Fold this sequence. Notes:
Blueprint: E1 2-8, H1 29-42, E2 51-59, H2 67-80, E3 82-93, H3 100-107, E4 113-119, H4 123-129, H5 135-148, E5 152-158, H6 165-177, E6 182-187, H7 195-201, H8 210-226, E7 230-233, E8 236-238, H9 245-251, E9 255-259, E10 264-266, E11 270-274, H10 278-286, E12 292-296, H11 299-312, E13 317-318, H12 319-326, H13 328-343, E14 347-350, E15 353-356, H14 364-371
Parallel strand pairs: 1-2, 1-9, 2-3, 3-4, 4-5, 5-6
Antiparallel strand pairs: 6-8, 7-8, 10-11, 11-12, 13-15, 14-15
Amino acid sequence: MSGIYIHIPFCKQACHYCDFHFSTSMKKKDEMVLALAKEITVRKNEFENEIVETIYFGGGTPSVLSNEEINFLIAEVYKNYKVAENPEITLESNPDDLSSERILELSKSPINRLSIGIQSFYEEDLKMMNRAHNSAEAKKCLEEATKYFDNISLDLIYGIPGMSDEMWRQNIQTALDFGIPHISSYALTVEPKTALSKLIQTGKIAEPQDEVASNHFMILVEMLQKNGFIHYELSNFGKENYFSKNNSAYWLGKKYIGIGPSAHSYDGEKRGWNIANNSLYLKAIQNDELPIETEILTISDRYNEYIMTGLRTIWGVSLDRIENEFGLEYLDYLKKQAHKFLSDDLLSIENNILKPTPKGKFLTDGIASDLFYLDSEV
Length: 378
């Protein structure tokens, strides 16, 4: 089983914290839709023997596309690939794009899962992040979306300067009150060259504190687990049968094709990424060229990816798989590197599966990087 990711590189306005690839000019939207359709067709041979189980519209803000444009791109996938009987088809969307009429229209389309970028239900947070929606729109959109869609995910950001523990609890509670079955939640991070980074440097916004973020993370885990959510990936919580199939496929090392500027692809042996420039992407596709760079993954690359994704998920890192796929040298190295984290109760081994303990969860990415195998260590 495999997936297709379609990157829609447009946004109405730039959020202060975002470093994804997008443009706020919609001038080339029509051209872009045709180019995406062409890339979908041109790359069909890569999935000759694969069944597409997920189609995911990410971005940018995919909900800036009209329903006709979205349906046209889905039809192109169906025309060129073998698609599973009930694929998960997700649209990332923002509350300001989801009017009652739009939600009703989408419910009649092949889209069967909405991922809504709420981020916070507090006005001051939304203004600070330069989100295009306000708090009332966030609530109204969830009220409407839950009437027509069963499979909804929403994004929330924690560790925002000035957000008290009580405010954070209230944000989570509001999401729970709407009966949402999936929540993705991330700490506010300061990426270089973003507006947020400049606002912090000039003292207009306080810097996010790790201690606050860590505390918010603990509250998040506790509240969601109490409410029947499974913490199946470091930043993702889902009720039974509501895990994101698209994202789970990434973490489990399944194949996927990334369509559009800056989109990434993976076929089990090599990784590819399209050029992150709308004009150059369009030019290449119009000239029948694929604007993609690829790298063949070394055994160490594949081991490191498995460590990173495995530790972030409930499936953990199988020591048997490390031995069978990568060999004894890698297994011995992993055991040696993991020793101090096992002693400090940050990692545990159960049924030959290595996983972070509750105490180690928030530190997972840092722990994983200490377990990476660098080729210079051979």
